[in-house]
Amino acid sequence: MKKRKHITKTSYRKKHSIIYYLRIYTIAVVVGVLVFATGTIFVKPVPCANSKSCTSDLHQNIKNNTVGMFEGHTVVPPKIDIASLSLQNVLGATTSQGEKHIYVDLASQTLYAYEGTTLVMQTYISSGKWGKTPVGNFHIWEKLVATRMAGGEGADAYDLPNVPYVMYFYNDFGLHGAYWHDNFGHPMSHGCVNMRQVDAHALFNWADGPSGNTPGTAVSICNHFTAPNSCQQDNPINQ
User: Fold this and answer.
1) pLDDT tens digit sequence for 77-104
2) Which end of the chain is more exposed for a tag (fewer CB within 10 A), N or C?
């Protein structure tokens, strides 16, 4: 007759404890995978124009006598002197009235600035080439005389000090001057709206930032724009 193996209480408890913790560990792993998968499907990442500044404070940053980099080339930024900035010759100061509104037509790469139904500026811009410019209706939430923008990777990396006349309208997407290229009328940005420096300066002086409970100047990014206020938007971002 076979002799039955004697199992002590200590060995039984030890075996039971190992199985218990293995079950807990397995459940925890499965739950973690499900949470990650659900977050990946349903939680969309916040769109960002400048990958090295998107999660940091977006503040005025003036660095004169420095150099920048764009598409592997060294670029020389403009010197910014706040004390000498002119706020004269504001667009529409003597001829227009009505609410201010900025429209960007991605199809024609053109920016239009209106006061009521009066056109006060029309100029070529450069919207997103390496990253999409967000389509939707926004308001300027911050105005900066100049700041540093950086992002991209490898051959696409850029680091640009003294980006002038910045008007942020959605996260770190903004209207601003560009000194590193002159290919306006064609997409050239990582999501922002690039302008000639002289045009950005004029628009900066004209546009309003937020004040108290009053939002800044309205900005509409359109797939197609028809004057004076028809803005076609495909899958716009809702704010």
Assistant:
1) 998 887 766 555 566 665 667 899 999 9
2) N
pLDDT tens, 101-154? 999 999 999 999 999 999 999 999 999 998 899 999 999 999 999 999 998 888
Quote the CA–CA distance of 102 and 169 in Å, as a whole number: 11
Distance separating the N- and C-terminal Cα atoms of the chain: 81
Rounded to whole angstroms, the Cα distance separating 53 from 9 reads: 61
For 42-99, where are the E strands, in sequence order? 68-70, 73-75
CA atoms of 214 and 99, how far apart (whole Å): 12
Count other C-beta atoms under 10 Å from residue 235's C-beta.
Answer: 7
Distance (Å, rounded) from C-alpha 24 to C-alpha 69? 52
SS3 170: strand
Q: What string of H, E and C letters represents the secondary structure of 181-193?
A: CCCCCCCCECCCE
Q: What is the C-alpha to C-alpha distance for residues 24 and 27, in angstroms, rounded to an integer? A: 5
The answer to whether the peptide bond before residue 47 is cis (omega within 30 degrees of 0) is no
